[in-house]
Design a protein that fits this description.
The structure holds 2 protein chains of 2 kinds. By secondary structure, chain A is mostly beta strands. Helices cover 12% and strands 51% of the residues of chain A. In chain A, helix 3 packs across helix 4. By secondary structure, chain B is mainly β. About 4% of the residues of chain B have low confidence. The chains are: A mainly beta, B mainly beta.
Chain lengths: 422, 245
């Protein structure tokens, strides 16, 4: 009897490995997926830094901050014939010693119609992603800036109507695709894109030509100055990829202040560009390097004037007019990430390090080439447990006073998150 | 006796003529068509088995057209659901829904982190990538020696043992240009998928570079299918899921 039982058990185990039931993966008319994340951040603050003074104005001075964030992101699809409605929501609850904050947003919610295989029409809130750069995208005309610390995170889109027409000529020109976009801005819709009452037409043309990805992008004058550009990406060897972007903004507006808060508005044609490469070594180490010039960025001297303005504002009794100007400038132009002119981004990640499968340590760094300040971030990522990502990061910022990374609100940050997918 | 010598000589002439030499290229072409129709769709499960017995499984739906156009959509696990990989010849891309745009990847990487790399997961016709350098008979199998047509192909050389009766691969050894054995593929469990498709439903691989690890690929629902060219383009990747019936 026992030999038969053992034989049956063995046969069952073999059957599990030799076949699988496809029926559980049939396409359904409605799908819902997403992830839940718990994140803990511990900031070592930099009370002498200009952006600390502005961001924490009115708060008791502190040396550190501990923050917990719970995030739930849901992605759903509803299908019927040639139509699909898809959405992505993002809900976050954040708590630290200063208080708590909650946000619930639709990152995307759009209806797509596919009357033919080569034609798609969409309307709704959509997060387009133009550009080949990993950390920076000069031709990202119709999207929100990405966070170079987490370039692969989903971002909130804009309300728009867009289309996609694909053509395969054959031969050297393997693919040609047209993506027209209308991004209307009113007081209620896309108000953060720029001035209201504009249709903001844009267009991207993609070509796969002789194994090279090439995009041409254009955005018409409207809520923002007109701009155009291109990008490319190509494998020089199987394990070596090169990519780049170039963009010009016609009549870019840049507020420039002096140390006494006298602001002049510079209007000029601004050119931004990026050149990057990605290399996979025989040891399965991936290297990514990008050089980025921000045509709308502040020079070393211009940034220095702003930092001096902040010092001058806080040297006087508060509140004062200088402080109001510094706060306004810090929340927009001078306080945005990568407000400088020239940067280098570098990342190295090792797959299955030390023979531990699904363990991926990495390090990335961002350097301001003009003032030599930088941020270095070692990271440990483990994905060996089904549907669970565990990540530990240490952000280390270094720079003298009046430098990009030297004037950030914090000098270090330790971050740990657990993300569960369902 | 007088007649025997000319007959023997005639026999030698016939045996050495091209009509009787092995046509490795034809064998390889038949292997390609016996493994899959030129255009098809299928479901596959990839199982990574670690030395301690821990398993990680992926399920993907694949569509192929012609000799070198393949697209793969990940259906499971949830952390990878919605990811799409596209291959056009030696160009490969990975699309992640959260990122919203495809990035170029290499054939030697593995989007699943397993012993199977992207070239194994998005396999195109062997005749598209390899030339036959030699062919010989070994009992009930043929042994084909294959050389990559370009330096962009994942494996520089293959040794392919082909079952004579079914004209299907049994074992393939994959070598780097240095001569290093990178991995061995074992085809098992011939099944009838219907529509004239009868092929191994299971592929196991092991590698001297990953001692103790094993990866298994299982096929299901393999059938002929036709797809328009625009499916195999970067712009279509966000909508690949809608192709499944």
């Amino acid at each position: 009897m026992w030999p038969l039982v053992l034989l049956a058990a063995g046969a069952g185990a073999h059957a599990d490995e030799s076949s699988f039931d496809v029926s559980q993966f049939e396409k359904k008319p409605f799908e819902l997926n997403g992830y839940a994340e718990l994140k803990s951040e511990n900031f070592a603050l930099n009370p002498d830094a200009a952006l600390y003074k502005l961001n924490y104005y009115g708060q008791p001075q502190r040396e550190s901050l501990t923050r917990a964030t719970e995030t739930l992101e849901l992605a759903g699809k509803l299908r019927h014939d040639i139509a699909t409605f898809d959405f992505r929501t993002h809900s976050a609850f954040q708590q630290d010693q200063l208080g708590h904050d909650q946000s619930n947003k639709f990152y995307e919610a759009a209806l797509s119609l596919r009357p033919r295989s080569d034609l798609t029409l969409e309307a709704g809130k959509r997060a387009l992603s133009w550009g080949k750069g990993y950390a920076f995208n000069p031709i990202g005309f119709v999207q929100r800036p990405k966070d170079p610390n987490d370039p692969q995170l989903a971002r909130e889109g804009y309300v728009m109507a867009d289309g996609d027409f694909i053509w395969n000529p054959g031969g050297a020109l393997q693919t040609l695709a047209f993506t027209p976009v209308l991004l209307p801005s009113t007081s209620d819709v896309n108000s953060d894109f720029g001035a209201s009452s504009h249709l903001n037409p844009a267009l991207k043309v993609y070509a796969l030509y002789r194994d090279t990805d090439i995009d041409f992008a254009w955005q018409g004058k409207g809520s923002r100055p007109a701009r155009f550009g291109f990008d490319f990406a190509r494998n020089l060897k199987t394990n070596f990829e090169i990519h780049g972007e170039w963009a010009r903004i016609l009549g870019a507006v840049k507020p420039v202040t002096d140390a006494m808060g006298n602001v002049t508005i510079e209007v000029s044609n601004a050119t931004s560009y990026l050149l990057g490469l990605r290399y996979l070594s025989e040891a399965s180490t991936t290297y990514i390097a990008e050089v980025y010039h921000n045509g709308t960025g502040y020079s070393d001297a211009q940034a220095g004037e702003f930092y001096q303005l902040v010092d001058n504002a806080f040297a006087q009794p508060q509140p004062n007019l200088l402080l109001q100007k510094a706060l306004a400038l810090g929340q927009t132009s001078y306080g945005r990430p990568f407000a400088g002119e020239n940067y280098v981004y570098f990342r190295a990640q090792q797959q299955d390090a030390f023979g531990i499968v699904y363990f991926q340590p990495s390090v990335f760094a961002m350097l301001n080439l003009d003032d030599h300040s930088f941020q270095a971030t070692p990271e440990l990522l483990y994905t060996g447990i089904k549907n669970l990502d565990l990540r530990l990061r240490l952000y280390l910022l270094h720079g003298e006073t009046s430098t990009d990374f030297g004037e950030k609100p914090n000098s270090r940050k330790l971050e740990l998150y657990a993300r569960y997918y369902f | 006796m007088k007649l025997r010598i000319p007959l023997i000589l005639l026999g030698f002439l016939l045996l050495s003529s091209p009509a009787f030499a092995l046509d490795g290229q034809k064998i390889l072409q038949q292997v390609d068509r016996n493994l899959e129709p030129e255009s098809y769709e299928s479901y596959r499960k990839l199982i990574d088995i670690q030395p301690d017995g821990t398993r990680k499984e992926y399920v993907l739906w694949t569509a192929k057209k012609g000799r070198d156009k393949v697209v793969g959509l990940f259906l499971s696990p949830a952390s990878d659901k919605g990811r799409v990989t596209l291959r056009l010849g030696e160009n490969m891309w990975l699309y992640m829904p959260s990122v919203g745009k495809p990035i170029r990847i290499t054939s030697l990487q593995s989007v699943t982190g397993s012993v199977f790399n992207n070239a194994d997961i998005l396999r195109i016709d062997y005749t598209a990538e390899y030339d036959v350098e030699g062919a010989e008979e070994q009992n009930d199998q043929y042994l084909l020696a294959l050389k990559a047509k370009t330096g962009d192909v994942a494996y520089d050389r293959l040794k392919m043992w082909v079952d004579k009766r079914h004209l299907l691969p049994v074992t393939i050894e994959c070598y780097a240009a240095s001569g290093l054995l990178l991995k061995t593929l074992h085809f098992k469990d011939i099944k009838d998928f219907g529509g004239g498709i009868k092929r191994p439903a299971q592929l196991e691989t092991d590698s001297p570079l990953y001692k103790g690890y094993k990866s298994v690929m299982l096929w299901s629902g393999l059938k002929k299918a036709s797809f328009p060219d625009e499916v195999f383009t970067l712009n279509y990747l966000p909508r690949i899921e809608e192709l499944r019936k």
